[in-house]
Specification:
The chain has about 120 residues and is an alpha+beta fold. The chain contains three helices and six strands, in the order ααββββββα.
């Protein structure tokens, strides 16, 4: 794990207290644990999710189903790996919501079914 100092840059925050807050949340959720020397480690191994292609922010367009790459995520972030995939954002209409061009969007097919989309 990176140090709190290194996480400031990685997370684009200015305060170590923000990093501390999020690390405590991950500890409470059982995603991280402290080893005997007090270092943070992940509890479970990472899982891979297929990178399916790009998606345009704004007007809907069909997503490509071609496998481009595999990116690892901790299994706590993805409840059903077999029903999840990533799309790369193309376009800038979602910048106001914090979704930037080239961001990756995690799509959970089961969640979309629940929402009727």
């Amino acid at each position: 794990m990176p140090t709190y100092e290194e996480m400031l840059t990685l997370l684009s925050v200015r305060s170590k207290s923000v990093v501390h807050f999020w690390m405590n949340k991950l500890l409470q959720e059982g995603i991280l644990e402290k080893d005997k020397s007090g270092h943070l480690t992940f509890i479970n191994p990472f899982v891979g999710v297929p990178l399916a292609g790009q998606v345009s922010a704004g007007f809907p367009s069909p997503a490509e189903e071609e496998l481009r790459d595999v990116i690892s995520f901790d299994e706590y972030l993805i409840t059903k790996q077999e029903e999840s995939f990533l799309l790369k954002v193309d376009g800038d209409s979602m910048i106001g919501a914090g979704i930037m061009p080239d961001d990756l969007v995690l799509v959970d097919v089961a969640e979309n079914r629940k929402m009727g989309t």
